[in-house]
Amino acid sequence: MSAPKVLVASDLDRTLIYSSAALALTMPDARAPRLLCVEVHEARPLSYMTETAAALLTELGDTAHFVPTTTRTRKQYQRINLPGPAPEYAICANGGHLLVDGVSDPDWHAAVTARLADECAPLAEVRDHLAATADPAWVRKHRVAEDLFAYLVVERELLPEEWVKELAVWAESRGWTVSLQGRKIYAVPKPLTKSAAVREVARRTGALLTLAAGDSLLDADLLLAADRGWRPGHGELAEGDWTAPAITALPERGVAAGERILREFTHACRPGAV
Predict the structure, then answer these.
(1) Concatenated DSSP letters for 72-130?
(2) Full-model pTM
């Protein structure tokens, strides 16, 4: 059988997999979909997809190059147990690590870190700014991911909207971008992109078509780099009514959106669909 020529690059959290708080099960209880747990952390179930979505992902893995594309660190990604064939490629740390059969490609990582050093303010400056300006009244955790970017875990209902806007302006002038996703505020260097890593995977696989999905500001470059893309009815992109010519804005929210995205992927990968 010839190798698949379609590459499917998808964000994970709040795109394909969902925490219990993000499921958005708005239907009557008796009509709620059956769920499959795909992540356990500290002996507790953490992330889910519908059983139907799991079957679609298994089918997708047999017909396309499926590439999980996440802002998660490698450690956070590796505790996810997705159904279907193990992906040959995965993208972690927003493009900072390109995993090949589960192992980070050292040449890719070295090239990324060199570019960050050349093009934007150092991580230490951003960390210091976050520490100096974020109020302990609403910050629960300060974190650094893979020595590449920083994020805060916050009490969302206490978070001042104006502080987020001021942080975004400050970061912009230093070559960084800010993304608010659920209870996390990310500060990420602009050259650190999912799209660059996806283009490298497309080059290595010889893919003729790239499909993508994502819900946050950090997924916008990924969606724009794809031939076709989908975003759910929730998340930063939906809240900003963000769209582009090759992007489909789906109405579904929560775990139902993850299932719909996988239906779109599997349909687009079938012979004659392109």
Answers:
(1) S-HHHHHTB--SSSPPSEEEEGGGTEEEETTEE-HHHHHHHHHHHHHHS--HHHHHHHH
(2) 0.93
